[in-house]
Design brief:
The structure is a homotetramer of 357-residue chains. Chain A contains 14 helices and 12 strands. By secondary structure, the first copy, chain A, is of the alpha/beta class. Chain A folds into 2 domains: 191 residues, Rossmann fold, CATH 3.40.50; 146 residues, Phosphofructokinase domain (Rossmann fold, 3-Layer(aba) Sandwich). In chain A, the strands form 2 sheets. In chain A, strands 1, 2, 3, 4, 5, 6, 11 and 12 form an 8-stranded mixed beta sheet that branches. In chain A, strand 11 and strand 12 form a beta hairpin. In chain A, helix 1 packs parallel to helix 12, helix 6 crosses helix 7 and helix 8 crosses helix 11. The N and C termini of chain A lie far apart (58 Å). At the A-D interface, helix 1, helix 6, helix 7, helix 12 and helix 14 of A face helix 1, helix 6, helix 7, helix 12 and helix 14 of D.
Chain lengths: 357, 357, 357, 357
């Protein structure tokens, strides 16, 4: 008999349902007597005891379904440790609900913030197994996170479409790609769509280098230039600011995001016609791509195996094409970024892609 | 022997290449001796004599290709009649190039502005055949314009993706859809994607009706609400402003577009978490959908027939599933909008969709 | 208070769920007190009283879902009037269930066979409203059936893919497209994908004309030829056979379908490398395209309106872009085929497409 | 100054153009003076001196284009060493053309057969660099081949579509997936689409186990069963046959492929309604998916680097997410198959997928 709590936390992404299906199928195929408590809207559901009882049937047919059947919410890590507006100690509340329901373990799907909280719960003595969910692919300890490849597909399709219109009109186009503070998504979508310039947080850009590249292309007869810009892209100048100075700058920031700032500067300094496109939340939505479905299913399957064996305190991840388990304390609080001298960056540069550095 | 000039003008869209391929195939299949002058970047190419000689081969394999192999540019109608910075009379320049090249006719693909200029050239005595290109579907005299259905597909896919993330997070999501001053694109994409609220220019909205609908949904247990908002959507209040008053308002307008204004008001007045997504230029790009490929090919085929018969001064369009010809003077300067009491609007309302009116 | 029976019959197709959602939403938005009896697996469910009670909620979120939540089955019309293996009179059984449940009407979604039975039930005194479902678009009385445009999209994508491989290898490729006894699907998918030869049942082909076209293409330097062949395509020779002679021929027919026969003859007579691809049932599956979603929703909405007004005995269809109602007795038993001298066929021929005639 | 010969051989697949673009971009960005000889239709072009001179421009804009701009052909390895119908020694002919054109090296893109010939040319003293192209992913020495992930996407979409129709009609559906003699493609597409049974060449099946699984599903209330069957799937019985016995069996084999045989047996032994769908060559065609575009670009970039450094005799591949070089003699003639006890197979089994073993 197993009593399993499950929750999805943080920004939603594709293949959350596929991963949960994997966990539940692998467990229910091995053991008849399983109770699944689905906590609603992330940690909130665990804090306030808001859950729904689920059976294997509820996880049937959701392999291809985007979103999460449990709902999700973002609760910043630092707020988790603070009492809520009614003075409730959230961590204690989660522990109490865990013990009250006599859970064997919690299955937690989420990204960086989620993993910090999951590790906290582990430290507090709860049995926890986690799965690496994020379109950003910035989780330490795993080569890949699910959601990422689907988001690459969506961002790539957007840039593909922009390509034909840029080509027809001879414009500079900026497509702003998600990815939080890391450049994986932008780097891959940019390479996949043949972007001419890729700007990522890990490689601060020099606006003059971007202008050089545009002029070089014009000189070579290319009528248009495509920039794939990470939402977290930063100029060399801004990268040198102290935290305080940066905050000061952002206080009066008049742009919706960095792409609009770059567009304005390019218009002024390079005299080009620039358009900005922001696919935004579409990058998190819809059916997961086949890669993510297989990957999330495999992760779910191995998470199920850990639970059946009673091995807790791990995130399941992938390393060299094999599913692995990584101790939660090694994962929590660390970020996996693109290295500025990573081989893939060098390969991209050999193809003629500029990083504005 | 036929000498045909061809140009694509205005914002690019899908199936421009498919339509040109149709024209050229139908003519070259019937007549051996054909010369095609492709003017580059819309009317600009005709004004400045910037063209490339094309053969049937150049139009092979472009049926599925987005954009336009001739390039495009926007030149507002009123500017067409004004001399350029060097004092050149643009209309005269176009006529001179037409006669110098001894063209039999011009094939012009474009939307509303393009048709005004095409009609002007007709009035000036040039032989003109036009094809109705625009994702807005706002051209008078034809049931449909090519590019429209593909744009519906793209906007629908965006809202589909937003649906899963809205569902997971329980938010209000606004997706801003193109369409210039008419609501066809938003209406169709909104109905296709199951949007809860559709705002179009032809039906000015009352923000309180929108809030009512959101609250009604919350009361019924729906955690999220999706708004498909046309880029030209307008509030009842703004719709009542005089042109001068509206201009005054827009002078200090702090929002990138109307969706952001609506979002702000909803946040404040309804206290909901609102996100805005703007698919933007992706709606004009990429490969045309099968519907548009067939439609543009048929239009091209019939345009070719007109040219072979020497019948000029027409736009080819579609009426009741048959390709027709419409005198250019009837088309130019008119707009085809959604009627507020159109049957399709009533049908949408019966499905529970609110138009905020 | 309304008591509505609903069933989907015949081969499944896309947008069945979208259409049912439309009916239910439009009725439940207008009237509180509605009971919906969903009969399972088509007429079978009505015959054997196999149904499930449904509410508005069951139809929420199914707009984009392929298949049918009610299941379907094919029961040939002539068998409907014969007793089943236990001697049950099926028509009487349907009537009894209808009266036993005190239904106000039946909503029936289906194609040609389905409409014959629906009309029979109408003649027997039952209140019936039908919706035109079929990827074949062969229903008389409506310009369009839902499912059709999605099937065009899928078949087109298949031919698009084949195009690149045909081009790389210099082969003749046959793609067999569904469509039962009419050529709408093949004609549209063929035109949309730039097929060189289109064979449809309505225009019997002469194999020598096909060979001529292939040779003509080779002579012009085209390495490959693509044939879009309807599953019901027929040679001029076979078209002249009497029913008996044709039956005799098919008795010893060694090919899985006509495409394989054509391939064999081309290999032998034209000495070319031929490959056959049959997308098959994929053409009926998956999410409906935006066009079909809007169309099916509109049909559903108007069907709901008829029911609310108590107007029965009609199929809802579309004519000149407006949703109409057509008396069932006019629809049943008639086929809408492509006319050999339809304008669209002539347009296709002008583009250089051969119909092998 | 570099003189580079390039050819694509074997069945075409997605991302061939992307890979060639990568090679050419990385070389031309580093070195001005480059001559590229594109041999047409694989080794044939090299044998008969059939080539076209290409520049960087020819490789611009082909990143997303399916097929191969050089054309391809299959020439079985054993035939390469035999003289052609005119007595021409093909290997000598290739060498002579190589030396006559004073090539620095050959860039060869292909699969298993292609690599055997490439290694032969290396043994004969030619400078060769190869890239691993095949939708089968069966090349030894690399974790992945390009084309594979796109083929997974296409096969998965086909099974997804079949899912909705199977669900509606309560049938057993077999989808036959490509993959030659290995099961990678079927395994991944099957897992991605939630197939219930996956049959691959590496795990011979027992038809009774398949029937058990179908019955087990029926007993649990599932109306349908989906089988993803590799084109090379084999029964335990057939797997035990000697080569001679197997040949004898196949001589009178009445089925187009193994799926039809399985379908027939299931119909007879299990009394179920079975349909077969064969997506066939669509699996090789169309635009490469973003994963393949990035991967092929990276391979091309690193192949370019090898050429610039004059390092020959290698295939570029990927290992643990880094691009590597593998000596050609280690690659040629070896097959990378799925191991019957691979972790991914165990994971699939935990999810409830039957392999019929």
């Amino acid at each position: 008999m197993k009593r399993i709590g499950m929750l999805t936390s943080g920004g939603d992404c594709q293949a959350l349902n596929a991963a949960m299906r994997g966990v539940v199928k692998s467990i229910t195929n091995a053991e008849k007597d399983v109770e699944i408590y689905g906590f609603l809207e992330g940690y909130k559901g665990l804090i306030y005891g808001n859950f729904t009882m689920l059976t294997g049937k509820d996880f049937s047919g959701i392999l291809t379904k985007g979103g999460t059947i449990l709902g999700s919410s973002r609760t910043p890590f630092k707020l988790i440790r603070e009492p809520d507006e009614n003075g409730l100690d959230k961590v204690e509340a989660m522990k109490q609900n865990y013990y009250k329901l006599k859970l064997d373990c919690l299955v937690i799907l989420g990204g960086n913030g989620t993993h910090k909280t999951a590790n906290l719960l582990r430290e507090e003595g709860l049995n926890v197994v986690t799965l690496p969910k994020t379109i950003d692919n910035d989780l330490w300890g795993t080569d890949m996170t699910f959601g990422f490849q689907t988001a690459v597909d969506i961002a790539t399709e957007a840039i593909d479409r922009i390509h034909t219109t840029a080509d027809s009109h001879g414009r500079v186009f900026i497509v702003e790609v998600m990815g939080h503070k890391v450049g994986w998504l932008t780097l891959n979508a940019g390479m996949a769509s043949g972007a001419d310039i890729i700007l990522i947080p890990e490689i601060p850009y020099d606006i003059d280098k971007i202008i050089d590249k545009i002029h070089e292309r014009t000189a070579r007869g290319s009528k248009f230039t495509i920039l794939a810009v990470a939402e977290g892209a930063i100029s060399k100048k801004d990268a040198k600011l102290s935290k305080k100075e940066y905050k000061e700058k952002m206080k009066n920031y008049k742009y919706p995001s960095v792409s609009y700032e770059i567009a304005d500067i390019l218009r002024e300094k390079a005299g080009v016609d620039v358009r900005v496109t922001v696919p935004g939340h579409t990058q998190r939505g819809g059916s997961p791509c086949p890669y993510d479905r297989v990957f999330a299913s495999r992760l779910g399957s191995e998470a199920g195996k850990l639970i059946l064996k009673g091995e807790y305190g791990f995130m399941v991840g992938i390393k060299n094409r094999e599913i692995i388990k990584v101790p939660l304390e090694e994962v929590a609080g660390k970020l996996k970024s693109v290295s500025a001298d990573a081989t893939i960056v060098k390969e991209a540069k050999m193809l003629g892609i500029s990083f504005g550095d």
